Amino acid sequence: MTAIPELNNYADRSLLIVEDDKPFLDRLSRAMESRGFSVTACDSVTDGLAHIGKAAPAFAVVDMRLGDGNGLDVVSALKRQRPDARAIVLTGYGNIATAVTAVKMGAVDYLSKPADADDVVAALLAITGEKSEPPQNPMSADRVRWEHIQRIYEMCNRNVSETARRLNMHRRTLQRILAKRAPK
Predict the structure, then answer these.
(1) Rounded distance, CA 184 to CA 181, Å?
(2) Among 18, 70, 112, 154, which residue carries the largest CB count within 10 Å?
(3) How confident is the model over 23-72, as pLDDT tens digits?
């Protein structure tokens, strides 16, 4: 069990959560409220930007891919309004390039979904420069491979032939992979 940093060290406990997966948004909002945060939940980039325009929060948890845009736009706007704000990015499509981009835009950490509330709190409150502990149950190599294939498939507008070409994979092999359930 990892030690969770103290929220009591922060006077402003306002937290903006921007996530388009409604059940996950509700669960995370309740969990963060129970840990002492004052939560505002938004389900789109537009709503998140509007809230930041009214009152920039001290903390933010933002999904990378939202229905109406990129969550990094929310992080960027937050850092412009409130440079001391601490934001983390959540995504189901993790890769090194997007993690680097998120950190360059001002995020303090980058977590893969599903992340539990304790991991989110630890990332939000981690001392700058201090590395957070690795997750207790990281994604398996098979799951990471499956996520990568799904991301490329979506980027190719669900075109199997184009996805197979970009992945340097036989089309039938890709079709078999896509037909299976996601590994754990």
Answers:
(1) 9
(2) 18
(3) 888 888 998 899 889 999 998 889 989 988 898 898 999 988 888 888 88
What six digits make up the tokens of 28?
A: 């995370």
Token pair for residue 150? Answer: 């799904």
Helix (H, G, I), strand (E, B) or coil at 118: helix
pLDDT tens per residue across span 135-162: 666 777 787 788 788 878 888 888 999 9
Q: Does domain 9-125 have CATH number 3.40.50.2300?
A: yes
Identify which of 76, 39, 42 has the alpha carbon closest to the alpha carbon of residue 57: 39
Domain ranges across the chain? 9-125, 141-179
Among positive and negative, which fits the CA dihedral 25, 28, 34, 35?
Answer: negative
